[in-house]
């Protein structure tokens, strides 16, 4: 097997919980050497559970430094002198106070790339910016759920995960540029960016987004969840070819064009709902997939993992989901999460 595409890239992380650690774990999976700088008591995510910590920190090194002390700052400088990048997700005030910006670290290494992953930006203050709060603040929660029900949040940390991936992209882009500097990524900006076509429709055409039943798409019809004889089916008909194949299999006639299906939405949805009620979600998936029609039965996490055993890897004592990035000729070495301070320099002072 070839070396990872990021072999030789050295990344420092001062991260907590999810967004920052997820970003650097994606880099570690691709071969980067990631050193997690932890306070003497460790990243607080270690207190959640061992499995939680492992899911975000496999394959990293752990060094303890008390960055509030002169010894800790000296240790940070030594690490920065030999690093390509630092990624940090803390409050802006802490990032500045602990010297985790490019302006603070350039004296050690003027080619280092410093990525600040915050809620609203380095200059925006310390407003609380947890995943759910940002989803509420950016309109995502208001867009989600049935129209007669309350706003709804996804069942996983979509803002944190999306922001982590964006931060990793920004970090690599600046490394490729060949010179050091500061990169900023905020959870707010990432979630607004991911509202792309919704925001564009509003900004350019004045179209206010609205919630539709069963997560229906605002234009494509039928494109939503449907109840079946057993379970729910996600059906996503985006063009007339898909509709022709689906309609033939489901015994439906009429509504041949996308425009007509959009105009006669309620009639189409009623007809599709009646047709799908005659079989189970799993059976419809099996019938429609060979025809090239986008459809999937709604699965639980247990069912989804059972259906994709190749997605599960072993990292030390933990079974985890593999990296989503697959590089030809390279298979990541999924190392275990580090023990706290496992890679401390002998004799280093970690606390005041």
TrEMBL record:
Keywords per UniProt: Transferase
Keyword Transferase: yes
Region described as Disordered: 331-352
A GO MF label: transferase activity
Keyword GTP-binding annotated: no
InterPro entries in UniProt: CoA-transferase_III (IPR050509), CoA-Trfase_fam_III (IPR003673), CoA-Trfase_III_dom3_sf (IPR044855), CoA-Trfase_III_dom_1_sf (IPR023606)
Protein name per Swiss-Prot or TrEMBL: CaiB/BaiF CoA transferase family protein
Species the sequence originates in: Streptomyces hokutonensis
């Amino acid at each position: 097997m070839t070396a990872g595409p990021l072999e030789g890239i050295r990344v420092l992380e001062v991260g907590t919980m999810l967004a920052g650690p997820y970003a650097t774990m994606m880099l570690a999976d691709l071969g980067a050497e990631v050193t997690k700088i932890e306070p003497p008591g460790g990243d607080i995510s270690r207190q959640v559970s061992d499995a939680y910590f492992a899911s975000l920190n496999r394959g990293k090194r752990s060094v303890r430094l008390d960055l509030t002390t002169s010894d800790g700052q000296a240790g940070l400088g030594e690490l920065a002198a030999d690093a390509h990048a630092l990624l940090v997700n803390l409050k802006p005030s802490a990032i500045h106070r602990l010297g985790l910006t490019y302006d603070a670290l350039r004296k050690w290494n003027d080619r280092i790339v410093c990525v600040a992953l915050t809620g609203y930006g380095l200059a925006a203050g310390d407003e609380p910016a947890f995943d759910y709060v940002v989803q509420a603040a950016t309109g995502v929660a208001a867009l989600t759920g049935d129209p007669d029900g309350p706003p709804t949040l996804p069942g996983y940390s979509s803002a944190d995960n999306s922001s982590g991936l964006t931060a990793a992209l920004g970090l690599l882009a600046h490394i490729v540029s060949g010179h050091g500097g500061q990169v900023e990524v905020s959870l707010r900006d990432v979630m607004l960016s991911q509202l792309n076509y919704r925001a564009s429709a509003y900004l350019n055409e004045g179209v206010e987004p609205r919630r539709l039943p069963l997560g229906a798409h605002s234009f494509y019809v039928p494109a939503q969840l449907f109840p079946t004889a057993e379970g729910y089916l996600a059906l996503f008909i985006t063009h007339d070819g898909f509709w022709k194949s689906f309609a033939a299999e489901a015994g439906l006639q009429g509504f041949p064009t996308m425009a007509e299906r959009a105009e006669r939405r309620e009639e189409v949805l009623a007809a599709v709902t009646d047709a799908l009620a005659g079989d189970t979600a799993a059976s419809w998936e099996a019938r429609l997939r060979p025809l090239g029609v986008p459809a999937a039965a709604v699965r639980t996490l247990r069912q989804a993992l059972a259906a994709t055993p190749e997605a599960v890897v072993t990292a030390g004592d933990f079974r985890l989901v593999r990296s989503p990035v697959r590089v030809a000729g390279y298979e990541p070495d999924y190392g275990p999460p580090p023990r706290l301070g496992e890679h401390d320099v002998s004799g280093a002072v970690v606390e005041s």
